[in-house]
User: Fold these one by one.
Assistant:
Number 1:
Amino acid sequence: MQFDEKSMVITGGGSGIGAAIARAASAKGARVCVADLDQGKAQAIADEIGGIAVQCDVGDEAAIQSVIERAEAAHGPVDIWVSNAGLGKGDPSHAASQPNEHWELNWQVHVMAHVYAARALLPSMIERGSGYLVNVASAAGLLNQIGDAAYSATKHAAVSFAESLAITHGADGIGVSVVCPQYVATPLLGLSDADARANLLTADDVAEAVVAGVEAERFLILSHPDVAKYAAHRGADHDRWVSGMQMLRAKAIETFGEVSVENFYKLV
Ligand SMILES: NC(=O)c1ccc[n+]([C@@H]2O[C@H](COP(=O)([O-])OP(=O)(O)OC[C@H]3O[C@@H](n4cnc5c(N)ncnc54)[C@H](O)[C@@H]3O)[C@@H](O)[C@H]2O)c1
């Protein structure tokens, strides 16, 4: 789908990858609604690109419906919805050490938010025979994020739900992309553009890949090409892949003295 003149919503659009996608889509002519938990950040990006800002918790289905109402009142029926909001915290100790509240939050933000958006938008998109859903998951949804079990499990679920959307609604004229970046220099990792290097892309790099992927209507958008190679290794020999990940985890402890999610980009 092309972006010109399209009505687009992006969640988590106040920061990092979401803000970069908002700017890139606006530069291509989209009318953008920036939705974020943080009203101030959403407003700043909306002001910059001439869009609108809506405060919203994507884990609240009624809030998603109200974002759609606000976006449609300002820009017309939503053509492109980008579910991008996300969080990452890491495991305090063993792989099940985060409390249930944290697992539930990951489930709501990384999976149910995508379900709520699809549930609200699909009936009218199917009726129009057109619409595009972009779900930002992660390379952790194809591989794993060492040191963050809730993030890895829910990002896998996000990839699976995107597959279900694509398989079920391709014939209805609905486009679906799932975005699976590896490390990106954003506030999520406590990083900024100045930290970017090989294997640690800027948010703008990812936004460029997302815009090109949506324009080409590609299901799997990989900003980091190596992820395809790692996923192929995992598919070819899962036991060998787990052994490799165990070695990578041991290397992280040896190098940094701990398993901290924000340090892994230095090892890959
Ligand atoms: N940074 C990375 O290395 C990386 C890698 C792979 C995937 N991702 C994914 O990309 C997406 C964007 O991450 P980012 O790195 O730009 O992070 P970020 O922290 O810079 O931005 C995330 C935004 O989401 C918003 N948000 C969080 N919870 C929300 C909620 N409940 N409702 C509405 N908004 C909410 C935050 O306020 C923030 O503005 C996430 O889904 C993340 O998992 C990031």
Number 2:
Amino acid sequence: MERRDFVKLCAASAASTTLPSPAEAATLKARLYRPALLVDERGQPIRAESLRAGVNYVFDYPFAATPCFLLRLARPAAGGIDLRTENGGAYRWEGGVGPGNAVVAYSAICAHKLTYPTRQVSFIGYRDAPSPVAGRGKVIACCSDRSVYDPSAGARVVSGPAPQPLATILLEHDARKDELAAVGTLGGEKFDQFFRTFGFRLELEMGDRAKASVDGRAIVKELAAYSAQWAQC
Ligand code: FES
């Protein structure tokens, strides 16, 4: 690759006897998984420029059974936002990648009680339009218990019982080819808890593939094609 716009990873800060500034408090490191090029259902690389703002795209990463949202926001997502997990881990979200720095991705597993898009139905998703739970819209809303996350601010919690932001999926953008790859996560992952909670169901649905690492390619679909029904709230 000639040039890569890579999501800037937060740096671990040294222990300090004084109260750290928000930047110094960024203690959570990114977790790098096997890179996966984002492709369409025909296996062709997704061009960031071809993503439509306001459309809720989904791909599975870093495991075969863990869905993520891919969004192109209407405005640049500048980043530099300090966030915290429910365990107090601090990290800095450095914004979007690609055209206008507007392409972002997050784990689609709700940070409250792990609601996630299944093949049958999704109770969580990006709402571009206003709604009773989404307020003015342009948020990720979970209809299970009404948690709302702001995708333009690292999926911080806007309202509801979620105790932390959705985990960020780190994206790499190849500016020359305009291709996107998922490379890791930042923030409060819920994968262990997810597999403990839904392991039996996932095994029935997917066999032993559920926990397989996504390697090489991840297929991007619109949420309407990923889940047969989409709960509105
Ligand atoms: S599971 Fe999403 S708000 Fe409770």
